[in-house]
Amino acid sequence: MKKLFINTCSALLVMLSIAVAEVQAQEKPDSIQTLNDQDSIVNVAFGTMAKRDLLGGVSSVNVSNLLEKNYQTNTLDVISSFVGGYTGSIWGQNPLVLIDGIPRSAADIDVTEIETVTVLKGASAVVLYGSKAAKGAVLITTKRGEVKPLSIEVRANGGMYVPKSYPKYLDAVGYMTLYNEAQDNDGEAHRYSDETIYNTAEGANPYKYPDLDYYSSDYLRKVFYKTDATVEISGGDDRTQYYTNFGVSYNNDLMNYGEQSKNNDLNLRVRGNLDMELTNWLTASTSAAVRFNNEYTGRGDFWKESSEMRPNWYTRLIPVSMLDPNNEELQSIVYNSNNLIDGDYLLGGNNAVQTNAFADMLAAGYIRYKTRVFQFKVSATADLSGITEGLSFSNAFAIDYNNYYSEAYKLPYATYNPVWSNMNGQDMIIGLNKYGDDGNATNEYVGDSKYKQTITFYSQLNYERSFNKVNNFSGNLIAWGFQYGQSVDEGHDGSDYHRVSNANLGLQLAYNYAHKYYVDFSGAILHSAQLPEGNRRAFSPTVSLGWTLSEENFLQDVSFLDHLKLNASYGKLNQDIDIAEYYMYQGYYNDDTWVNWQDGAGGGKATRSRRGTNMDLDFITRKELRVGFEAAMFDNKVALEMNYFDQETDGLLSRGENTVYPTYYERTTWNSQGQEVIDFSYLPYINFNQDKRTGIDFSASYSNKVGELEYKLGFVGMIYNSEATVRDEVYEDDYQYRAGKPLDASWGYVCEGFYTSEEDIASHANTYSLGSVAPGDLKYSDLNNDGIIDSRDQKKLGKSGSGASPFTYGLNLTLKYKNWTLFALGQGQSGAIGFKNSSYYWVYGNRKYSEEVLGRWTPQTAATATYPRLSATSNTNNYRNSTFWKYDNNRFDLRSVQVTYDFPKSMFNENSLLSQLSLYVNGQNLLTLSKERKMMEMNVGGAPYCRFYNLGVKATF
After folding, report:
1. In this predicted model, what pLDDT tens digit does every residue of 777-836 receive, in sequence order?
2. I need a surface site. Which of 159, 244, 525, 602 has the fewest CB within 10 A?
3. What transmembrane ranges does the database entry give (predicted)?
4. Contact 654, 680 (CB under 8 A)
5. Residues above pLDDT 70, as percent of the chain
6. How far apart are CA 223 and CA 34, in angstroms?
7. Angle at 521 between CA 518 and CA 526, to 5 degrees
């Protein structure tokens, strides 16, 4: 951590040194506008604020301007390269996302519709949103009309996705050879004969000796394509301003086989925003958006099977030409089959693989997934200055409806496993084992259906006034709430029947003197139906202070300093986000049966307690201290911002079974699958566990102009640490306690290498609890020296980075020369670990063999082995998280590079149809720098990660 902090400070000092050198070299440097302009307006909770008056914990990105130099397809994908502390989470926690002040999904909006994105990090910045925003909030604000003539902007893009890599598996010969080796290691007879391996290698009859390569060009395209087009219409006069966005996008798929060769996504969207001045004291706004997503896919889980199906497991297609022509039964099967592929093949399978992805793609049908999103908001603001100067009242109501359903066509089908014989030196099929039957269907049917409805309202009374031009007061009284209900998933516990609600009354009082000294009090009274009566209300207070030092006389002579402000806040937020369900305070019983286990006779019904009652269950609290500063220097060329945060989350739920309640309050038993289950319990949920998060987030930018070259470099990041401070736990050894360890601590065994011999095994600690071992298996340290290797020998091996890596950072660079603009951004992380524990690395039993097993341990390769011995059994010893499988999850990703050419304005005049034209070429997800790059660029069991190359044009009429 100390090293990371030093490196970060060093990077900031380098940028500062460059700025000093350039200022000294230029007597009168030119100034260019940056995103850190102190006079810019920032969207905050229930309003806007001048950037110079912000009191920290708030960062904003102008996405509309960013889109001019960086075309993107994901709404929030690049924000972490501009906002320190945001990594998809905020300070390691998942935020509430709001679009135009309404809780919505970021997936339901296109990036071309967005004006700005504001990240609210500090407790004082989110408190007015109540419980559900207690872990931070992201405000997405859409574009609106302006007072200007009618403007039509058209943007069109065409791009292609290129797979980075595919998993590398052994072919059938390699698999069978090594599987036989695995059986040798287990003392078992070979499954595959030398003849089978030889004939497979020769490739004489691929139907009898299959060798299936899932990543062949027979099934996959080299690239797939995406196109999109957007039309934006905006304008207005003093009374009415309007903005409309029409968009369509389409992409196909990598699959190029059977029905899945038609896979595609077609998305349509329309948004309209309207602002009206109804009278000289009343304004109104309305927004509506509709989105239609249509996905077509053939049946069959190709990518899942690609990581599971062994290359020789079954024959994909059975050639009719190789059936015994004199066998009437076989010829009858061909004649009556509904699925004679290309007139030449029957579908292949076997007893274990009666259906498969290839057969599904050829015969099973398709699914059309349809999503419909409707969003509507109306608001009005009344200027009440006729009553009291500076007084206004706003009211808003919104309703959203998301509906998802599928239209499906499905057919059952038969597969066959051939029985081979050799006649006159030729292979011939003399029999077919059949699995399933061909079926018929004439109609589509509705497969799955889900919905979600959200209703939101807020009313606010605002007061804002200045006295003597230096005493600036503002106050807001806000009533805000939302509620959503959704369909209940089949097999769910039923908790979705209860609508999820958030309701609170917020108050904000702020004062600043001459924009120099600031004090802000913000708080909210919350209500939660997830808690028992008597505990359903709570008050969340926050207070913030600010001091603009650059306005003080003692800093007026510091010529390079344009702006410097210190700010701090403290708050206590109450939340119910971490209370997973309703009625968790309520105990309950259920009926059960008992049996006389001695003779199996007799028995009856019993009533068992499953949970105790706790009517004192209360809110979970977030106590936060935040201290920060912001600065601008050298004619606003350098902008710096930093926040230190210290959060304590108290009252997280626990059952208290280890340290709070006696052991006889709960009894556990083991089921037939060897899983521990609760037999009965009187233990209630209680507020017990505590977490802590600390860190520093920062942002720095340097911008300048030399001749006709303008440039800007931005660097943001976060140093982050978390700790489980209190846990209900009892362990025998201190190193096993989770309390005092990071929240994302990864636990595992310490590996000492491979067992080298039976003598080595006999002299080491007993491993019976992990499974039997042999030479070539992994050897773990006996940390507690009890002579047994078991779960008590696991220790913390590192941090997983599940909330955020210990160090995360982002870079962005803009170079502009005349009409050319080059933009690039990257994101990186370090300090976290991972485990190579996917099926690609953990290969045992009948699993598919990846190329990783080529480094397996054998007596001959013991000194150079990089992989344990192979086994045809489950081998539960080797495949556990340990230092052997651990890797450092350090990486830097070049996320985007774009070159843009803006045609000279001199090309257009008042009579021209066009007023602006730009062309750009863009690449996304281009490069990963990491020691584990190959693993990080490979996706096992899913579609491959892709680079995206795009050509676009934007025209304004």
Report:
1. 999 999 999 999 999 999 999 999 999 999 999 999 999 999 999 999 999 999 999 999
2. 602
3. none
4. no
5. 93
6. 38
7. 160
